[in-house]
Design a protein that fits this description.
Elements lengths: L7 E5 L4 H12 L3 E6 L5 H6 L5 E4 L7 H13 L4 E4 L14 H29 L2 E6 L3 H4 L6 H21 L4 E8 L5 H4 L4 H10 L8 H12 L10 E4 L7
Parallel strand pairs: 1-2, 1-4, 2-3, 4-5, 5-6, 6-7
């Protein structure tokens, strides 16, 4: 029997390569999965790859979105056991190029949405005394952003702090809270968001000599969600090919 058989997982940003890989990994481990992304994204295609997957098209920035998403997923699959807060947007703008709208947009999606979804799901996790919350942080949280901008680096640093805070609060209730800090996963953020010269320079600094694959991210999500990972909480797992060792 798969290690997560009977559990229900909700993955945000699920139409993108990392979210889709996480959803596939959790489904392979036995989870029933709900996939959340924006209307008009590749959400339906991502859900079609997973038997029984529930696509939920929603704007995480909308008022009441977290509660609505939780209710829709629970109505089909039951209460959520595993939350993967993977939705995020990249901004390469440094401080002087970051206006108020950009700051609020990046913090709203990368941080606020993760908090409100966790807040909506925590009561039912507490009731069942089991839960996994996995946040997608970033190498930028530790470095200040090698190529990423100010708002992005700050949002990911705050997401790591949210991970620590919730882990401390929820440990006694059977709920673990961890984060993954990837660096330069082979997604459009890297293949399209960076120039060929930037990619060449980055590869020269990554000890393993390549970019991370989305499936490698999905593997870490599955590991942190597993029952045998229940003694790990409040951690930020680096996934950077040796680019930063601390």
């Amino acid at each position: 029997m798969s290690e997560l058989a009977g559990r229900v997982a909700l993955v945000t940003g699920a139409a993108g390569p990392m979210g889709a890989a996480a959803a596939r990994a959790l489904a392979a481990a036995g989870c029933r999965v709900a996939l959340v992304d924006l209307p008009g994204s590749k959400l339906e295609a991502a859900a079609a790859e997973i038997e029984g997957a529930l696509p939920i098209a929603a704007d995480l920035m909308a008022d009441g979105a977290a509660e609505s998403i939780a209710a829709r997923a629970a109505a089909v699959h039951g209460p959520i056991d595993v939350l993967v807060n993977n939705a995020g947007v990249l901004s390469n703008a440094k401080s002087q190029e970051t206006d108020e709208a950009e700051w609020r947009r990046v913090l709203g999606i990368n941080l606020d949405a993760a908090f409100f979804l966790a807040r909506a799901l925590i009561p039912s996790m507490k009731q069942r005394r089991w839960g996994r919350i996995i946040n997608t942080s970033s190498l930028a949280a530790k470095t200040g952003g090698l190529t990423a901008g100010t708002a992005y680096a700050v949002s990911k640093g705050a997401l790591s702090s949210l991970t620590f805070s919730l882990a401390r609060e929820l440990a006694a209730h059977g709920i673990t809270v961890n984060a993954i800090a990837p660096a330069y996963v082979r997604t459009p953020m890297v293949t399209e968001g960076l120039s060929a010269e930037q990619r060449r320079q980055l590869l020269a600094t990554i000890p393993v000599g390549r970019f991370c694959e989305p499936e490698e991210f999905g593997h870490v999500v599955r590991f942190l969600a597993a029952p045998l990972a229940g003694f790990i909480t409040g951690e930020v797992i680096d996934l950077n090919g040796g680019l930063l060792m601390d």
